[in-house]
Amino acid sequence: MSRLPVCSGANAVKAFEKAGWIKDRQSCSHVSLKKAGERVVMTVAKHKELAPGMLRRLIGDSGLTPEEFANLL
Questions:
Q1: Which domain holds residue 66?
Q2: 3-state DSSP assignment of residue 13
Q3: Does the predicted model carry a pTM greater than 0.90?
Q4: 45 pairs with which residues across the strands?
Q5: How many domains, the chain?
Q6: In this structure, what CATH number is given to the domain that contains residue 34?
Q7: Which of 18, 24, 44, 48 is the most exposed place for a label (fewest CB within 10 A)?
């Protein structure tokens, strides 16, 4: 398994948008993302640095691999 990149919540949202996810709504410091054809709604905290476990879960929910996500950053 490869190492996860260190990134902020804002950078993660930008990377997921490049992968086809769309901002659904924002509530304070959390952004909800959805994608056509997916039943999953992802919620990304806009922290300065996302915890590795949280980032790993978001990447898994999005259907990306850590390498694909790193290339989108």
A1: 9-72
A2: helix
A3: no
A4: 30
A5: 1
A6: 3.30.920.30
A7: 48
